Amino acid sequence: MAAFTYMGTKKSLADTISALCGLHAPGPFLDLFSGISAAGSSVAPLRQIWCNDAQIFSRTLTEALFRSTVDRPRSDHVATIVRRLGDDNLNALARTLRHPLEEELGLLWVVAPEEQIAIQSRQREDCTMRRADLEGRFTHCLFTTRYAGSYFGLVQAIQLDAIRYGADQALKIGSISSEEHRWSLLALCRSIASISNSTGHFAQYLTPSSTNLRRVLNKRRRCAWAYWIEALEDMCAIGDAEWRASNRVFHGDAVDVLQEIGAHDARPAIIYADPPYTNDQYSRYYHLLETALLYDYPAADGKGLYREDRFRSNFSLARSVDASFERMISEAGQTGASLMISYPSNGLLPDSLQRIPELMAEHFSHVQDPLVIPHKHSTLGASKGREKEDVEECIFVAAQAPLAA
Q1: N or C end of the chain: smaller count of CB under 10 Å?
Q2: Element (H, E) at 10
């Protein structure tokens, strides 16, 4: 499924992980930090895929990819129903916000820096001021009241709310299935990723200026409906329904999930861990997608408008990263599965090339020398200077039994 772009080195590493799986005993592959499932998608369908992530977005995506009972949504049918029902919400919001909408539409194809910069600020202030009134009158106005003038233009925000309204109503009246509703929301997430006024993630939006105005306007002119329909048409599950029925999806902290798995008879053959490697909390890069799925009008803070309840990983805290690795490797060792970890040589864990094999040796009978691969890591929008930096990506492998030659 051409659903979401892999961040950093995910895809190339996933292909290497898939190739290494051939050395291990048959059985399920557990992707412990699945994200958008680059690793699981590369391994499938040669093994059953088990996925885990603390993010709602990842759980929703992996359930669709690996657990759906049908191969794909009826995209034409779903689009027609959602558009028809969504227009009710769109038209009602448009009537209420007629004047600011007309102002935005009048400037959308005009390159007038001072006016463009001013209108974004007015939109944010206006929607914040109207928030209580709009949220008291409309069930679906989250993007309009929370993100217009920041990540999206007002037109786009209203369109996103209309898509969500149409999908929810279509499910409520039985016009689409629960799986088609899930595909609709994932298509909404991809539309958000395509039109968002940001740098490829959602750590913060771009504040319009004379230097970036053309980029901002290019994003503002994109139609949320068009990108949603395109994404919906691309949506499809991996493998066949019989294979997908035996896959599993977990949702929680990695170590907690390993403890849960260790208490049951059914266990994976391979555990793959790709933990965070910087002090950046990754939930800040995906918070808009979490909100699009939860649609819960969250309290938010900071320039990025992050959810206050967003997940925070101990792997991204210098004071707890070593203990987190020790607990994860210890729990993995008790499952009987092989363990593969990908982690850069310059990650937050000090001396990882020595420390990870040391920890593995305490809990596994066989530990291989790390596989070191030169890579260029994304700096996630060049927040720390350069957009890319040279690193050594390392793959650590341990098992309780000798691996195949």
Answers
A1: C
A2: helix 10-20
User: Does the pLDDT at position 217 exceed 50?
Assistant: yes
**Mean pLDDT calculated for residue range 138-164:** 95
What is the model's pTM? 0.91
Unique residue bearing structure tokens 């037109």: 155
Kindly report whether the peptide bond that precedes residue 45 is cis, defined as omega within 30 degrees of 0.
yes
What does 15-75 look like in DSSP terms, one character per residue? HHHHHHGGGS-SS-EEETT-TT-HHHHHHTTSS-EEEE-SSHHHHHHHHHHHH-SSSS--H
User: How many Å separate Cα 221 from the centre of its chain?
Assistant: 24
- Report phi then psi at 66, rounded to 5: -115, -5
> What range does the domain containing 257 cover?
10-70+241-276+313-399
Structure-token match 């709009």, residue found: 134
Residues 6+ apart with CB under 8 A from 162: 86, 87, 89, 90, 93, 140, 225
- Give the pLDDT of residue 389: 63
Is position 304 within any domain?
A: no
Tell me what pLDDT residue 189 has. 96
Is 305 within a domain?
no
Q: Taking a C-beta distance cutoff of 8 angstroms, is the pair 356, 340 a contact?
A: no
DSSP state of 148: B
